[in-house]
Design goal:
Distance between the termini: 162 Å
Order of helices and strands: HHHHEEEEEEEE
Shape: rod-shaped
Radius of gyration: 58 Å
Largest sheet: 8 strands, antiparallel
Strand order of the largest sheet: 5-4-7-8-1-2-3-6
Number of strands: 8
Number of helices: 4
Helix content: 40-55%
Structural class: alpha+beta
């Protein structure tokens, strides 16, 4: 075998691939020892073959590694998404329950306040009814004066404690800014104001007056706070 035949007939690739017989391999090695360029070509062929072999080995491994990493990343992303969705759901439920709790608490507080208000009103109504209908309570009717003959007021007075309450039957409408004052009078004592009434007048209510024991008359006057002028509207003389 000559150098030219060795190169042109592809004996180098056959040798590197191990496809030559023992005699052919000996001949290739003999020529390679004689010609360094042939040995260089053999080395290059071996390097090329090894590179191709390594790529063939590592490419599936790399592909498998990439697929494994991708699966891990996708699984991690899915798990994180599920955890975040669950956390968001729990947060939403928490805030919803918290808002609902506050709403229910406010409704309950409003209902309790309403019940308490009703109980207080009922208690006051019972106390006033008991006071008005008590055997020790005296009814005093204040009738209108010359300027307002149709005016009429009832005063309920406890003879023992001096407690007084007033119910309006009819009072004339006052000009804007004016109000009514209730006075207890006694010839030997200084006149004493026991109550004040500001419009609008409630005809279905009892007005609480200050306690008074010693007086001979009751008078309701209309008062102008600007001019300080006072005019009698109702008057009653108390019979002892």
């Amino acid at each position: 075998m000559t150098k030219k035949e060795l190169i042109e007939d592809g004996w180098i690739d056959k040798y590197v691939l191990g496809l030559t017989t023992e005699d052919e391999s000996v001949e290739v090695e003999r020529l390679a020892s004689l010609y360094p360029e042939l040995q260089e070509q053999i080395n290059q062929a071996r390097t090329k073959l090894l590179g191709t072999f390594n790529r063939s080995l590592t490419r599936p491994a790399l592909r498998h590694s990439m697929l494994t990493k991708r699966r891990i990343l996708m699984g991690s992303a899915l798990l994180i998404s599920i955890v975040l969705a669950g956390f968001a759901f729990l947060c939403r439920e928490h805030f919803y329950l918290k808002e609902d709790y506050h709403t229910q608490y406010e409704k309950l507080a409003a209902e309790q306040a309403k019940v308490k208000r009703f109980a207080n009103d009922s208690r006051k109504a019972n106390e006033r009814a008991s006071f008005v209908n008590s055997a020790t309570t005296k009814r005093i009717k204040l009738k209108g004066c010359e300027s307002s003959p149709d005016a009429e007021v009832l005063v309920f007075h406890c003879k023992l404690s001096g407690k007084m309450m007033m119910q309006v039957v009819d009072l004339p409408e006052l000009p804007s800014g004016q109000h009514y004052e209730v006075w207890a009078q006694h010839p030997e004592l200084v006149d004493r104001k026991v109550g004040q009434l500001h419009p609008p007048v409630r005809y279905d209510s009892l007005y609480i007056l200050d306690t008074a024991l010693y007086y001979t008359s009751l008078q309701i006057s209309s008062v102008d706070p600007v001019t300080r002028l006072s005019e009698p509207v109702c008057l009653a003389t108390i019979k002892k």
